[in-house]
Amino acid sequence: MSVASKFETTVTLRTPYLLFLGEADFDARAKTAFGLRDWAPKLCLGQIRLPACKVTLGLPDMTPAAAAIAGAGSLVIGVAPKGGQIAENWIPTLRLAIDAGLDIVSGMHDSLEDIPGLAEAAKARGVRLINVRNPPLDLPTGTGRKRTGKRLLTVGTDCALGKKYTALAIANAMRAQGIDADFRATGQTGIMIAGRGLPMDAVVADFSAGAAECLSPDAAPDHWDIVEGQGALFHPAYAGVTLGLLHGSQPDALVLCHDPAISRIKSLPVFPTPSLEVAAARYLEAGALTNPAIRLVGVSLITENMDEVTRQRVLGDAEQRLGVPAFDPLKTSLQPVIDRMLGR
């Protein structure tokens, strides 16, 4: 069995949720809301959107007052804008949520308490302001010490292309087979889903590898920690968090995540995404620093908009190129990659 780390952020949220989408202009901007809808659907009551929002979760549009009457416990900020900042035009909605008696849950880098008057309003109304992206202050630096147990890390050719979904799907599938496995959350959405984790992109750089070591402590020899990846080695802005997580988690196994529909970094299109072969080689090379036995066990592809013939062709091509099982965590079987992990 794995043990919970004393350094993990633990959250207990009042449910169900009203998911705030702000002015999200494409789905990836609302990845927190989509993650909660997809992995905790019974807890998601409705959505609230500002007039310029172009995204929908397919949930009822509700005001905070209507959501509270319907039984909502929390308004969750479900968007992830660049920089993780709380926009000024969100504040009236947050105040309405407090007035309605809802807790506010945020995964932003900005603290809810930094908004003038918000903490006082929450205290007067008897509701909580919950900042999920607050890492512990006493994290150690990395040691590179080999830990007991097994670990898989999801990595990617870019950001926002299925690392969290892949990790959740693998962990759930393994547990369904009676395999001792835990999902280890490293971002705000994963922490909200799992109830615990470490917000890796909010950790001071010198402590990122140490934080990853703390997230996945010593475990039983046959236990697997399935660690949610962050960023990408090939993203000019977020490669640092990826490398710290890779070195600290010391994965025995990697799953490479990729969206076949893109050829350039989505938020910085001047930079191309690497080929699958280059991506796999770079991750294995970097990971070998702390685990020389690291190996690639699968490639996870986004194929939701493909017909079945195209899906099978794309999966078959990736499988042939990398020599490992290719799958879509939401569309195809995970058994081949689990078998590869377990050496079957």
TrEMBL record:
Q: Which Gene3D superfamilies match?
A: NAD(P)-binding Rossmann-like Domain, P-loop containing nucleotide triphosphate hydrolases
Name of the molecule in the record: DUF1611 domain-containing protein
Task: Return the InterPro entries for the record.
Answer: DgcN-like, DgcN-like_C, DgcN-like_N, P-loop_NTPase
Any idea where the D-glutamate N-acetyltransferase-like C-terminal domain is?
Answer: 142-335
> Its domain of life?
Bacteria
Q: Which residues form the D-glutamate N-acetyltransferase-like N-terminal domain?
A: 57-135
